[in-house]
Amino acid sequence: MSFLSLKQVSRFYGSVAAVHNFDLGVEKGEFISLLGPSGCGKTTTLQMIAGLVRPSSGTIMMGGRDITYMPPPQRQLGVVFQSYALFPHMTVAQNVSFGLEMRKVAKAERETRIKDILALVHLSALADRYPREMSGGQRQRVAIARALVINPPVLLLDEPLSNLDAQLREEMQFELRRIQQAVGITTIMVTHDQAEALSISDRVVVMEKGKITQVDTPYELYEHPRNDFISSFVGKSNFMPATAVANGAGTTISIGSTDITFETDAKTASKDVSVFIRPEKLRLTTPSNGQLQGTVTTRYFMGSQWLVSAATPAGVLAVAVPNLGAPPPLEGENVGLSWQHGDCRVLAAGAAE
Ligand SMILES: Nc1ncnc2c1ncn2[C@@H]1O[C@H](COP(=O)(O)OP(=O)(O)OP(=O)(O)O)[C@@H](O)[C@H]1O
After folding, report:
1. Which of 188, 205, 229 lies at the terminal end of a domain, its last residue?
2. Which of 16, 44, 60, 161 sits 20 to 30 Å CA-CA off 129?
3. Residue 36 CB–ligand 1 contact under 6 Å
């Protein structure tokens, strides 16, 4: 049995289901991200785990106990919000100490735990500073230290990095993962940033309109998205309209109005499909017959790679070209586009495979 499990958990506001029949088992020490567009029910799910919102139905279990309606203080969870919510009139050490004092932890033990946790988040030198004297990243570290110092069974993070600028945000993602792994704490993070979810989670829960659409490792989610919503939400992707015709062992795919066909062993019940392929899996070549061809429309230099768009009979396709020396063809030039058939996914448009 999982350490934390949600079974058929729903939350209705009037007739609107903010979360509907949510089923998830989280193992001890796992880092799970809840990912999805605004309004998909991520925060409501987190708040039900925290005890701040009552489920309309379903069960939440933690460590073998039913906590569905347990008041938040009894759950003893660590929670970090995007606003940090530090006490402005208290120093870093006092902010971190607060939860221990509330729990009547003896002074000597308090001091040891504060020292250890500040060392873990690399803030030992700033123990006597006030929040206003610190950067956003440092304040976020204090919020994490304050949540962890009580040794909670689960850490809940609600968009913890969204107030940080892009570079600091990326740095803090890896810091968060380092700290989580050092403590080995079961963690659930809400985010709408797919890059953040992919880079630091063990598994990602993708949500859409209150429901789970896929739960997978970051790699599986990126490589094998179950439908076109997920493939376009997680990373960049190209879709080519196509038709699928069963041919015994496999399927023949014909791309749009082109004469490009290929065989795949993917099974699909649908005749009208989308061929989905990531930009980094497409190659630009010298055009040749029997190949999809197009004209370069834009070319952006991104540092580690070029992002090239090519107008083809199957639509405008994005191609990521690694910056390995020679720049890609110029705007207006004709190109061929090639790919390994194994890198394509054949999806019934708008539906799970
Ligand atoms: N207290 C409430 N009363 C009525 N409707 C609510 C309430 N809280 C949330 N909702 C609705 O429930 C749905 C899910 O909201 P929720 O905040 O969980 O989404 P979210 O995925 O966290 O979105 P965001 O990324 O914008 O924070 C939304 O349609 C929202 O309007």
Report:
1. 229
2. 161
3. yes
Q: Which atom of ligand 1 is nearest to the CA of 45?
A: 18
What number is the ipTM of this complex? Answer: 0.95
Q: Is the CB of 209 inside a 6 Å radius of any atom of ligand 1?
A: no
- The verdict on the CB of residue 15 being under 6 Å from ligand 1 is no
Instruction: Tell whether 108 and 257 lie within a shared domain.
Output: no
φ, ψ at 236 (rounded to 5°): -90, 150
Same domain, 221 and 275: no
Indicate whether residue 189 lines ligand 1 (CB < 6 A): no
Q: How far is the CA of 263 from the centre of ligand 1 (A)?
A: 44
Strands (E) across 81-208 are located at 154-158, 186-191, 203-208
Q: What is the 27 CA–ligand 1 centroid distance (Å)?
A: 26
8 Å CB contact between 258 and 243: no
Ligand 1 contacts CB of residue 160 (under 6 A): no
- DSSP characters over 219-253: HHHHHS-SSHHHHHHSS--EEEEEEEEEETTEEEE
Distance between Cα 346 and ligand 1 center (Å): 33
**Same-domain pairing of 32 and 151:** yes
Look at residue 344 and tell me if it is in a domain.
Answer: yes
Claim to verify: residue 91 and residue 225 sit in the same structural domain: yes
Question: Where is average pLDDT lowest: 7-11, 53-57, 67-71, 123-127?
Answer: 123-127
Q: Residue 301: beta bridge partners?
A: 306
State which amino acid sits at residue 197: A
Domain end among 229, 263, 280: 229
pTM for the model stands at 0.87
Q: What does the pLDDT read at residue 252?
A: 83
Q: Is the pLDDT of residue 77 over 50?
A: yes
Q: Which residues contact 39 (CB under 8 A, 6 or more apart)?
A: none
Q: Which residue did the predictor score with more confidence, 303 or 257? A: 303
